[in-house]
Amino acid sequence: MNQKRHTSPNRRREQHKPRLSAASHAPIVAFDGARLIVQAGREKSLLRRHPWVFSGALERIEGSPDSGDTVQVCDAHGGFLAWAAYNAQSQITARVWSWQAAEKIDADFFRKKIISALAARKALSIAQSDNGMRLIHSESDGLPGLIVDQYDGVLVMQIGSAGAERWRDACAGILQELCNPACIYERSDSDSRALEGLPQRNGVLHGNLPGSLLIEEHGLRFAVDVARGQKTGFYLDQRDNRALTGALARDKDVLNCFCYSGGFSLYALRGGAKSVLSIDASEEALQLAQRNVELNGLDGSRAEWQCADVFAALRKLRDQNRKFDLVILDPPKFAPTAAFAEKAARGYKDINLLGFKLLRPGGILATYSCSGGIDDDLFQKIIAGAALDAGVDAHIVYKLHAAPDHPVLLSFPEGAYLKGLVLRVAG
Ligand code: SAH
After folding, report:
1. Mind listing the pLDDT tens digit for each residue in 150-196?
2. Measuring CA to CA, which residue among 53, 69, 52 is closest to residue 139?
3. At a CB cut-off of 8 Å and minimum separation 6, what does 310 contact?
4. How open is the CA angle 96-100-101, to the nearest 5 degrees?
5. 153, 182 contact by CB (below 8 A)
6. Alpha carbon distance 130, 109 (integer Å)
7. With bands split at pLDDT 50, 70 and 90, how would you rate the model's confidence at 1?
8. How would residue 284 be classed by pLDDT, with cut points 50, 70 and 90?
9. Substitution candidate for ligand 1 out of 149, 221, 258, 287 with most atoms within 8 A of CB
10. Which of 184, 224, 326, 383 could form a disulfide with 205 if both were Cys (CB 3.0 to 4.6 A apart)?
11. Cβ partners under 8 Å of residue 178, min gap 6
């Protein structure tokens, strides 16, 4: 454990400042393991039940925990705040498992949490025939770092924290027992694993992966490649936004940027679009998209596919004076955290400005951001700036978020990473 990090010159200076803390009302809870003591005043976010403890909030660490260990998080008086998973290598030094002093973080704890997440999904009004669903959504389901997506009989686990890594096998066993899937596949290969000091992993955990995997979503069928596809294989979070956008496509010339496996394109084709031009930088994604068009018996003659960088392709379309009635922009994450917000803002502004310029009067821009580092307000401001520079007046028709199987914990606004605006420009 690197104690040095917790006694920086700044910290030492801060120690001489008077502290405004009142006496702690939190109980002292006996514990054999390590304790993280947060600085006076820095317990506030935890009292509001925000589940992250940043390294800069720590006063000291008692004991020598290993990454993944359960630690007790305490206020400056030693009063209990939470049970959390420790990670020496992350800026987020601890992620909270439980706020209950009496809780024991063991396999039964994870069983309870998983049962509760599954029950929450059963209570949603997602069609019976829709068999692609997010079953566990990390912090928002009280399981920081654990994502589980279901694609028909296959569960895909994605692990993004040292704590979830420690309990990986236990959680896989519980999921096997409760859901009885044909396969549990692990896609722990996102870039963010590096920030947590975790190695990349991609492979079968239980059972056998079927040769081909199909899901149904709002009556459309999609082939999902869980081993090589992006994220866990599909962007389930856009399920309802795809349906809504598709319903706006009748008789329209549609441009779908960052189309991946054709999600929005298929909905637009089914919705009666006159033409759909879809662009993505990944050749594999475009192949999957075309297979998905065939799978659904849709009229491929109305579809055009382009393998290109969207930033360049939009400029080319502008120079060619191409016009569309509906433009969809669903780019990858430009800002994983707030630190990247400024650079990301430039990227969003650029594509949205060009998107506005490609619209006919009265046209619709459906624009999304899945960047955790950009909140609703900032996103709207960026898009407003793009409209201004494009010289168009636009109205918000819909404000959109992720589908309800991606719930957002009220005390964890970072969970609301996906935001969308459907805008109509003046005619
Ligand atoms: N709208 C899709 C999901 C989009 S994910 C759906 O509903 O399923 C983002 C996509 O952007 C990925 O397929 C990725 O290959 C693509 N991409 C990333 N950077 C790109 C770029 N600069 N130009 C074109 N495509 C890009």
Report:
1. 999 999 999 999 999 999 999 999 999 999 999 999 999 988 888 88
2. 52
3. 257, 258, 279, 280, 281, 329, 331, 351
4. 105
5. yes
6. 29
7. very low
8. very high
9. 258
10. 184
11. 111, 114, 115, 118
Q: What is the pLDDT of residue 129?
A: 85
Give me the DSSP letters along 142-162.
Answer: T-TTEEEEEETTEEEEEE-SH
User: Domain map of the chain by residue range?
Assistant: 19-98, 107-207, 235-425
Which CATH topology does 107-207 take?
Transcription Regulator spoIIAA (3.30.750)
Structure tokens, 141: 């389901």
Residue 5 pLDDT > 50, yes or no?
no
CA of 422 relative to ligand 1 center, distance in Å? 19
CA of 169 to the centre of ligand 1 (A): 32
From the candidates 171, 257, 259, 370, give the one annotated as an active-site residue: 370
pTM of the shown model: 0.92
Contact 245, 220 (CB under 8 A): no
Report the nearest-CA residue for atom 15 of ligand 1. 282
Q: Does domain 235-425 have CATH number 3.40.50.150?
A: yes
- 404 close to 124: Cβ distance less than 8 angstroms: yes
Task: List strand residue ranges (DSSP E) for 236-358, in order.
Answer: 253-257, 275-280, 303-307, 324-329
Whole-number CA gyration radius for the chain? 24
Which CATH homologous superfamily contains domain 19-98?
PUA domain (2.30.130.10)
SS3 119: helix
Tell me, what's the pLDDT at 380?
98
The chain-wide mean pLDDT, for the chain, equals: 93
Task: Take residue 240 and report the two structure tokens written for it.
Answer: 């309802």
Instruction: List C-alpha distances in Å: 56 to 39, 65, 81, 93, 266.
Output: 9, 17, 17, 9, 47
- Give every CB contact of residue 144 below 8 A, 6+ residues apart in sequence: 51, 52, 85, 95, 96, 97, 138, 161, 163, 164
> Does 179 qualify as catalytic in the annotation?
no
pLDDT score recorded for residue 248: 98
Q: Say yes or no to pLDDT of 7 above 60.
A: no
Q: How far apart are CA 195 and CA 423, in angstroms?
A: 36
Most distant CA atoms of the chain, gap in Å: 72
> Would the CA dihedral through 90, 92, 94, 98 be positive or negative?
negative
